[in-house]
């Protein structure tokens, strides 16, 4: 009798563990999704208003430094077969309300150091 109960428990746990992928879980995107072509439109010397027009408002702005904007995008996958979780960020530093420096996970265009005025 003791082995029969153990067998039933083992069989049930194996059966239920095989059903794990049957449950649909959604992907959870959070933050600003930035497209590569939008980031490539950035140029040194752009104003905050121009950056907002191109990329939208930042998810996070530094409370102590109003000249630093953070664009963060994070994707948490519901199921592993749809890919891995990932996180991308873009940090824009302004000086006198104009872009001074851009860092992060995106490559800037070759024309980034050419101001729009020229």
Distance between the termini: 87 Å
How would you classify the helix and strand content by structural class? alpha+beta
Low-confidence stretches: none
Number of contiguous helices: 3
> Overall 3D geometry?
rod-shaped
Number of separate strands: 5
Over the alpha carbons, how many angstroms does the gyration radius reach?
24 Å
Q: Main β-sheet, in a few words?
A: 5 strands, antiparallel
Helix/strand order, N-terminal first: HEHHEEEE
Helical proportion, percent range: 10-25%
Secondary-structure map with pairings?
Layout: H1 2-18, E1 28-31, H2 36-39, H3 48-55, E2 60-61, E3 68-76, E4 86-95, E5 98-104
Antiparallel strand pairs: 1-3, 2-3, 3-4, 4-5
Q: Could you please describe the fold and organization of this structure?
A:
- Helix content is 25%, strand content 27%.
- A hairpin with a 6-residue loop joins β2 and β3.
- The protein has helices spanning 2-18, 36-39, 48-55, and strands at residues 28-31, 60-61, 68-76, 86-95, 98-104.
- The chain is rod-shaped, with a radius of gyration of 24 Å.
- It is built from three helices and five strands, in the order αβααββββ.
- The model has no long low-confidence stretch (mean pLDDT 84).
- Strands 1, 2, 3, 4 and 5 form a five-stranded antiparallel sheet that branches.
- It is of the alpha+beta class.
């Amino acid at each position: 009798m003791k082995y029969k109960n153990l067998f039933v428990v083992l069989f049930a746990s194996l059966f239920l563990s095989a059903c794990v992928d049957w449950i649909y879980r959604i992907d959870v995107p959070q933050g600003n999704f930035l497209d590569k072509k939008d980031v490539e439109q950035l140029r040194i010397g752009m104003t905050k208003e121009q950056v907002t027009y191109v990329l939208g408002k930042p998810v996070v702005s530094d409370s102590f430094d109003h000249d630093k904007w953070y664009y963060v995008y994070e994707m948490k996958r519901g199921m592993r077969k749809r890919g891995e979780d990932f996180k991308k960020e873009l940090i824009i530093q302004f000086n006198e309300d104009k872009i001074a420096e851009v860092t992060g996970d995106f490559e800037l265009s070759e024309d980034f150091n050419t101001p729009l005025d020229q």
